[in-house]
Specification:
215 residues, alpha+beta, 5 helices, 6 strands
């Protein structure tokens, strides 16, 4: 499979998984509802936020619009860079795959921000409906759907730990979606294999000086 096919397939499949999971949650669950599927530490927990990754919020109004705007700029830049790497003979398939994951993740959350406010009703205390006459927010002001929650370890910090002693802690407390996972995995792949992806061309040092012919 060539690099172009890898990039297109990665972006397409990632977006399908991301949007399908978000639409399913919106149409079957209310905000705050959860479904446990592996004991108590793996759950589908439906929350919405203003656009940051892993359930974090950035702010409403102009802050939300600016976040979406900068994400669109980032998508344009990543798309251009990915196209360059696809054409480059020096870039590896692994690097193209990682970039495609990051691109898909960025696009996935932008779709929520731009469209979800218009194509869904709100989910507070009710299950949302699709394509209502009036959505819960304007264009570019939709909330990002998060659903994966893994509170694997829960407990209290020992009293002797500075600053947080006695406080409640939870690992992993962040709630995320497929797009967040794609971005994180893509970044980690680049960090782990950066030496392989960004090999410097070794300059061949001559071992002996060339002797000029005697005149």
């Amino acid at each position: 499979m060539n690099k172009r096919a890898i990039a297109l397939l990665t972006v397409f499949l990632s977006l399908v998984l991301d949007q399908a999971s978000k639409i399913w949650v919106k149409l079957t669950m209310r905000s705050g509802d959860e479904i446990m599927y592996i004991g108590n530490w793996a759950r589908i927990h439906f929350v919405e936020n203003e656009g940051m990754a892993f359930g974090m919020s950035f702010g409403a109004g102009m802050g939300k619009f600016l976040l979406t705007f900068f994400r669109i700029l980032a998508v344009i830049f990543i798309s251009y860079y990915l196209a360059q790497q696809i054409r480059s003979k020096k870039s590896s398939k692994g690097f193209v795959f990682a970039l495609a994951l990051i691109l898909a993740g960025a696009i996935g959350n932008i779709i929520d921000s731009i469209f979800f406010g218009q194509i869904f009703t709100h989910s507070e205390g009710q299950i949302a409906t699709l394509f209502p006459k009036v959505g819960y927010a304007g264009w570019f002001h939709g909330r990002v759907v998060d659903l994966f929650y893994f509170p694997i370890i829960r407990g209290t910090w020992p009293r002797w730990v500075p600053y947080v002693g006695g406080d409640y802690f939870e690992f992993f407390r962040f709630i995320f979606n497929v797009s967040d996972a794609c971005i994180t995995i893509g970044v980690f792949i680049i960090l782990i294999f950066q030496k392989k992806f960004f090999k410097e061309e070794k300059k061949v040092q001559p071992t002996e000086e060339l002797e000029l012919p005697a005149e």
